[in-house]
Design brief:
This protein has about 190 residues and is mostly helical. It has helices at about 5-30, 35-45, 55-75, 75-95, 110-125, 130-135, 145-190. The chain has one domain (about 10-190). It has 7 helices and no strands.
Length: about 190
């Protein structure tokens, strides 16, 4: 049996989505393509509430690099797509306050990459893939819900912790500002 248009389309989608994800991941891990490596990305992760920063940078970089490379190869597609989708959910959470469109700093780009990765995980890699060549040993039907359940739980926990940290920081800053204003008002009264 030959390859169908669907197989070629899935190959192109896998190569494009996986390649972009892997490139972004290597920016985080190795500083390639103008990235900041673990150190710089770790500092950035700390500044946006993902702590500890280096561990967060490593997890994001591995999810993007590994998930992207595996998607491009069509290997372990359910796990690869779920991992990449989880990383993009974490990125989308950062961009959410800026709205949808990327030109305004929104979550459009991260959301699209996550959706494409999730779609590939669910649909499968097609015949032009290592999964197909290996008899789908790491691309079984039960792996799709399992990979998404594990990823969803981990992603919800990480984003939840970040949200709590940001809320605590905002509350502490508001308290400091209120105390400073009260002190300023008290000194004005004397």
């Amino acid at each position: 049996m030959g390859c169908s248009r669907l197989d070629v389309g899935l190959l192109l989608l896998r190569l494009g989505t996986g390649g972009v994800l892997a490139a972004h991941g290597t920016q985080k891990l190795f500083g390639w393509f103008g990235g900041h490596g673990i150190e710089g990305t770790g500092q950035f992760m700390e500044s946006i509430g993902y702590r500890p920063g280096k561990a967060s940078a490593t997890a994001a970089g591995l999810s993007e690099t590994g998930g992207g490379a595996l998607l491009a190869l069509g290997l372990a597609t359910p796990a690869a797509g779920a991992a990449a989708a989880g990383a993009m959910a974490g990125a989308a959470a950062v961009h959410m306050p800026a709205g949808f469109f990327a030109q305004s700093g929104g979550y459009e780009y991260a959301g699209f990459l996550g959706l494409a990765a999730a779609g590939l995980a669910i649909t499968g890699p097609g015949r032009l893939s290592l999964d197909h060549a290996l008899g789908h040993a790491v691309n079984r039907g039960w792996m799709v819900p399992t990979a998404f359940a594990v990823t969803a739980a981990a992603t919800a926990a990480v984003i939840g912790m970040r949200t709590r940290r940001l809320r605590e920081i905002a509350e502490a800053q508001a308290l400091e500002e209120a105390e400073a204003a009260a002190q300023g008002g008290a000194s004005d009264a004397t």
